[in-house]
Design brief:
single chain, 420 residues, alpha/beta, Aspartate Aminotransferase, domain 2, seven-stranded mixed beta sheet, four-stranded mixed beta sheet, 15 strands, 37% helix, 16% strand, binds pyridoxal-5'-phosphate
Length: 420
């Protein structure tokens, strides 16, 4: 993870090999352009390997990963504990299906429930599946526990949120790119402005079963709601007998310097949706976590997943939970996050800095360029991150990044911004 500062991030390509080296990136990009669905617009870097916060591309150039798989790589590339857990489980059993038990599922659910402080875990795979599962659980809870008339359940969501890409999830997206061309949409959702407790209160009816939102909106540009908002959401949900479902797929598991961003705001949701970092950057692992009075509404045959709860996923998930219990991890994230935000707030060329912990959304002065243009310039300078929308870049380095590497990346960002 530590790299001597004398090692150039982009070592000079040996004489005579420049054209060969250049063709490796182009070769891979041509294959992707020809044969991969064109649903992404990646930066021009093709990664071959990673170690901690560093990645090496097919040209042999080393860069700092300042995106960390949108928080799926909270523990960096190839964390020794996660790699060891995966290797050990690979040699034992990797998939059983839920037709049978496996000896990793029970411990994983118990250890994750204990970390989150709830009673039960529903293991799934991707974040979108955790969201879909949470929506199903909330509806079923609404009918069976709250007593909402059949097929009348409604769920209140926040504008500009991001919860995945499935049909039901894009049905309540306010992003025209996410929705356009994908109708007809799943009914039953009411969208309110994020951060506005009065609007949320007004949107709740007797048929409302849940409020679903991100405690900090990641994809929207790391948008932190006004102080007191999440506590108000909690109070409204309690008053109206509505489930507070917190999508912590991106904000959870250490990103903010806390296990849960909701708890960091001094409140508690009824249902937590986890993903991304839960798989340790090794494989997709997601979960719905709640007490038995909520998750207990699911009975055999009513929900499932071939891969959810597989022993390999559970073994890696257990190792992730273990890392989150480690003494200094979260405190270190808070300290590094404070240092990062202090530096960002002093940097030229930014019109806004948002976020907390090792997580920032920065808006680039249009005089300097778009978010995309800055991310391209940073990639050339050896710092990989990505724009979200228009002027906004998301910074989310691995939580295990060395302090010196964090400052190296920020030095490079500052240099690009100063250049104008
Ligand atoms: C990434 C994300 C999802 C979707 O996760 P996938 O694994 O890509 O399906 C859901 N919610 C939030 C908040 C996310 O950031």
């Amino acid at each position: 993870m530590t790299v001597p500062s004398v090692v150039p991030v982009f070592p000079a390509v040996p004489a005579g090999s420049a054209s060969v080296a250049e063709s490796a990136t182009i070769h891979h990009e041509r294959l992707v352009a020809a044969h991969s669905a064109n649903n992404y617009h990646p930066l021009s870097v093709v990664i071959a390997s990673g170690d901690g916060a560093w990645v090496t591309d097919v040209e042999g150039r080393r860069s700092l990963d300042f995106l960390a798989g949108y928080s799926a790589l909270n523990f960096g590339h190839g964390h020794p504990a996660l790699r060891a857990a995966a290797h050990a489980q690979l040699d034992r059993a990797t998939l059983t299906s839920r037709a049978f038990g496996n000896d990793q599922l029970g411990p994983f659910c118990a250890e994750l429930a204990d970390l989150i402080g709830k009673q039960m875990v529903l293991p799934m795979n991707t974040g979108a599946e955790a969201v879909e599962s949470g929506l199903k659980v909330a509806r079923k809870w609404g009918y069976e526990v709250k007593g909402v008339p059949t097929d009348r359940a409604r769920i209140v969501v926040a504008a500009d949120g991001f919860h995945g890409r499935t049909i039901s999830v894009v049905s309540f997206s306010t992003d025209p790119d996410a929705r356009g061309g994908f109708g007809p949409f799943t009914p039953g959702f009411d969208v309110v402005p994020y951060g506005d407790a009065a609007a949320l209160r007004a949107a709740i009816t007797d048929d409302t079963v849940a409020v679903l939102l991100e405690p900090i909106q990641g994809e929207a540009g790391v948008v932190v709601p006004p102080a007191g908002y999440l506590r108000a959401v909690r109070d409204i949900c309690s008053e109206r007998n509505v489930l507070f479902v917190a999508d912590e797929v991106q904000s959870g598991l250490g990103r903010t310097g806390h296990v849960l961003a909701t708890r960091a705001a001094d409140t508690d949701a009824d249902v937590y949706l986890l993903g991304k970092a839960l798989g340790g950057g090794v494989l997709p692992v997601s979960a719905v976590v709640a007490d038995a009075d909520v998750l207990g509404v699911l009975r055999p045959g009513q929900h499932g997943s071939t891969f959810g709860g597989n022993p390999l996923a559970c073994a890696v998930g257990r190792a992730v939970v273990g890392l989150l219990h480690e003494e200094d991890l979260l405190g270190r994230v808070r300290a590094l996050g404070t240092a990062m935000h202090a530096r960002l707030r002093r940097m030229p060329g930014l019109t806004a800095v948002r976020g907390t912990g090792l997580w920032a959304g920065i808006d680039v002065d249009p005089a300097i360029g778009t978010g995309r243009e800055l991310s391209e310039r940073l990639a050339v300078a050896g710092v990989l991150t990505k724009d979200t929308h228009g002027p906004t870049l998301r910074l989310s380095p691995p939580l295990v990044i060395d302090e010196a590497d964090l400052h190296l990346a920020l030095d490079r960002l500052e240099a690009e911004l100063s250049r104008g």
